[in-house]
Amino acid sequence: MDMTWKRPAGRVWARVRAWMALALVAGVAACGGGGGSDSPSATVSVSAAEVDLGERYEDLQNPEPKSVTVTVTGHGVAAVGVAYDDAYPVEGWVGAQLSGTGSPYTLTVGLAAEAPVGEHTAHLVAGAVDDKGNVLDLTPLTVRYKVLARLRADVSSLDFEGVNGAPPPAGAALGLHAQGLAWTAVTSDPWIRLSAYEGTGDDSLTVTVDDEGLASGPHSGHITLTSADGQTVTVDVAFTLTSTALTVSTTRLDFGGANGRDASAHSLQLSLGTQGNAYDWELASLPAWLTASQRSGQVSSIAEEVTFTPDMSVAPGVHDGTLRFVAHVNGDTIEQQVTVQLRVDSRRLHVSEDGVAFTSTPSWSRLTRTVTVNDNFGMATNWTATSDQAWLAVTSGGVAGGSLTLTANPASLAGDTLSIATVTIQSSDPQVAKAYVRVGLWKGATTPAATVSKTGVSYIRIANDPVRPYVYAHAGGATIDVYHAYTAAKIATITGVGNTLRDMAVGSDGRHLYVVDEGFRRIAVVNLDTRTKTRVIATSGPTEGGYTLVVTRVTGVEVLLGGDGTAYRATDGAPVSLYTGLRYHMTASRDGSHLYYINWGMSPASAGGYTADYTAAGSGALLTQRIDGPSMDVGSDGNDIAVSPDGRTLYTTSSTSNSGSPYVFKTFDAQTLSAIGHLPPVTIWPTSIETGSDGRVAGGVSGTYEDYDICLYSKTGGLLRKYKIAGYAKTLSGQNLVFSGDALMLAATTTDPKLVFIPIGP
Hints:
By secondary structure, this protein is mainly β.
């Protein structure tokens, strides 16, 4: 509104010195007065003494202007105007405009500027002055105006992000403008929290969010602010929750060990990405063969350890299962799974030797042997032993790890007869498999006195029977001849064994003979009780060339070891291991706990060993571990290898250096592979080394022009005697030297060709 006060030039108005914001309205003419009075006189009146502009919110100050009529009567009026009443403070928000060319005038009152919140009263006067500036009359005019506070927030929305279960995100400030207003605040959801829910006037609220009971994902709500005068403001609130992770320290636990006999417990750690906030967890799934140290608890970022212990009394085999951990974090259910597997071996008793040969002749006898009874789980299992023959007495019982003594009494037996007994060792626990020892007793009417040679047959392989006084020999064809070591008589021929026979070995209990059928990927199995081929074992590779074969019983299970690094279970021919990838000549300790190899045809030669174990867990497996010992320096001429019956000493055919002479049979610690020394040197290349059941050692050499082919050593390493069995310019056949099962006879082949039986006695 135009509030400029228009004054006549050069005049001073005493009453309006403070009213400079109000002025005569432009275009308003001076008023003449009626009558001829010399003294000006006027009366000013307004149609309403009070103007109310109403009320408006502070952000909408647009009241409709109001008008009143100003009537001026009298004479001598020079000007009419409106001004602030100097008795009151100046109110700059009011505006006035006087219009008209004569009385009555129209005074329009409105808003000149925004007024602050509150009730306002402006005091104006409408007046008339003479031409000298003297105020002739004043009429007060009161203008009223009320400004209402507007309720408002400084933001329209708030956004929060957090990890479910973790400490909540920092609060956000919500500025509230509510001058003079009483207000209340209400949240749409309980997860929205405010620092205050009511107040008066301006304020700053802190808005926080709480994830209690919420599931992960987006959440939306709002805050409604309401003033006492009914105003409302809504602030949207968004809260995005990310699911936390239940973490396990491993996703797989294996129990039982590789051999299925390890009862060790295993642990894992649970944790949640919720920092210091802990929440309930439970183990929702647990196989029956496991027990847990706890099935429930609370977990946070501080790891919670849970220990699991297997039940090794369950059925042998491989048991698979799943651990399912469930954590409850507010509205989230979080799962984590752990794969578990338990390998359980079958319980077995086994003996250090399961095939024993006894002999009784007029001059020689070997009628007692002590073996060790073991439990493959290493438990102190009680056992009893019984013999099925009256001539064989046995220890009646004991505890696993103890000894079983076998004693034969041939008095009741006829001369020149072979008797076979079976000893059964068993536990009272039916879960523990029995062990058996087969014992052969040869009662000879005479004692062998001289070496006997069978000439004219080029046998390429011979093998001894650990129970019977027999030697098996073949010439590479399809048949196997059976000789009696004490009589040198061929007592049988096993026919139809294969096509091109090669290496062969007898099982440690003397029940079966295994023969490599060259080139046909198979090993023939001969039942030695019936002397018939009963089946073949298919091999994974060709059985040609230098394919060698060793048979041993590992923790009571008979296993065939092929020189190509494969192994097969004897009972059904199932592959059970791939223990090495090279072709070696091999040997095994009598108890089957160690395997040894030597490579031949190389200079320098190398040798080494493995520990062996067998587990029936799953489909069955031969478990081997290379012996971590020093490199075995066997020099050159590494043709053969043997181990003492007590499993302590390893023997190799060797030269003392890679250059050859002198030639020796080197000795090594069979457990550590550390070098011990050597047997007394020989004068020509060593080709064969064998150990007898009594610990004596026989070493064969390539004695073409020497006066000996075989050296016999005591079990302590002393040279006992030498033997010459090959003819002039002929030699002992390599690796074709064997002891009889009772270690009283030697058998060997030569290039003459001939098969020779040597009585060596006790």
